């Protein structure tokens, strides 16, 4: 498996199933601005709430071949082997498919993940141990706390400004390297001082 990141904004996403796993997947897709359709005879209370707010569409029925047409990403979040087999038989070669109950039956995996602003971390054991994946995610979540949300935004803004400076490539590299330091993550004063330093180059 090769790890990539997908921009799902406005993309069509079909979620087959309406239980706990489907709800967890949908929560992430909503944050990314995907155009979500859920197909399931019954759905969770959260999915009902999202539907009431027009955040997604729900078809309360079993999945059919017509539901799979023109869909960018399909997530099958059910333990029903008949449903899994049906989807596998009717998908197109260019569609992305994740089978929550059987990694090998789909062509993509959705790793455990979390974000801190512009920092995104994903963890997978390739189906070997979801429990180990969960433990590693918890460890990383603790190490990379909420301070990284503001810090990564600062890094982004600095990178944009530094690349516009009329200085040598080596000097730009020095400036970018300087701010990869905890003193800048932990101090807004240090961040302001650095930005003032950058202003002098203009």
From TrEMBL:
<dbReference type="InterPro" id="IPR006367">
    <property type="entry name" value="Sirohaem_synthase_N"/>
</dbReference>
<keyword id="KW-0456">Lyase</keyword>
<dbReference type="GO" id="GO:0004325">
    <property type="term" value="F:ferrochelatase activity"/>
</dbReference>
<keyword id="KW-0627">Porphyrin biosynthesis</keyword>
<dbReference type="Pfam" id="PF14824">
    <property type="entry name" value="Sirohm_synth_M"/>
</dbReference>
<protein>
    <recommendedName>
        <fullName>precorrin-2 dehydrogenase</fullName>
        <ecNumber>1.3.1.76</ecNumber>
    </recommendedName>
</protein>
<dbReference type="Pfam" id="PF22440">
    <property type="entry name" value="SirC_C"/>
</dbReference>
<dbReference type="InterPro" id="IPR036291">
    <property type="entry name" value="NAD(P)-bd_dom_sf"/>
</dbReference>
<dbReference type="InterPro" id="IPR042518">
    <property type="entry name" value="SirC_C"/>
</dbReference>
<feature type="domain" description="Siroheme synthase central">
    <location>
        <begin position="116"/>
        <end position="141"/>
    </location>
</feature>
<dbReference type="InterPro" id="IPR028281">
    <property type="entry name" value="Sirohaem_synthase_central"/>
</dbReference>
<keyword id="KW-0560">Oxidoreductase</keyword>
<dbReference type="Pfam" id="PF13241">
    <property type="entry name" value="NAD_binding_7"/>
</dbReference>
<keyword id="KW-0520">NAD</keyword>
<dbReference type="GO" id="GO:0019354">
    <property type="term" value="P:siroheme biosynthetic process"/>
</dbReference>
<dbReference type="GO" id="GO:0043115">
    <property type="term" value="F:precorrin-2 dehydrogenase activity"/>
</dbReference>
<dbReference type="InterPro" id="IPR028161">
    <property type="entry name" value="Met8-like"/>
</dbReference>
<comment type="pathway">
    <text>Porphyrin-containing compound metabolism; siroheme biosynthesis; sirohydrochlorin from precorrin-2: step 1/1.</text>
</comment>
């Amino acid at each position: 498996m090769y790890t990539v990141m997908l921009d799902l904004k406005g993309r069509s996403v079909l979620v087959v199933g309406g239980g706990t796993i489907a709800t967890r997947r949908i929560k992430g897709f909503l944050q990314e601005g995907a155009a979500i359709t859920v197909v399931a005879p019954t759905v969770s209370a959260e999915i009902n709430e999202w539907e009431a707010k027009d955040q997604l569409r729900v078809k309360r029925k079993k999945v059919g071949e017509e539901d799979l047409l023109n869909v960018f990403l399909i997530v099958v979040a059910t333990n029903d082997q008949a449903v899994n087999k049906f989807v596998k038989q009717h998908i197109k070669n260019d569609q992305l498919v994740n089978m929550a109950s059987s990694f090998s039956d789909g062509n993509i995996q959705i790793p455990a993940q979390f974000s801190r602003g512009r920092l995104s971390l994903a963890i997978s054991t390739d189906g070997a141990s979801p429990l180990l994946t969960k433990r590693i995610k918890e460890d990383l979540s603790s190490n990379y706390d909420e301070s990284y949300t503001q810090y990564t935004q600062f890094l982004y803004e600095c990178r944009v400004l530094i690349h516009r400076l009329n200085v040598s490539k080596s000097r730009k590299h020095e400036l970018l390297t300087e701010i990869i330091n905890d003193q800048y993550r932990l101090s807004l004063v240090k961040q302001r001082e650095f930005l003032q330093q950058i202003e002098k180059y203009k």
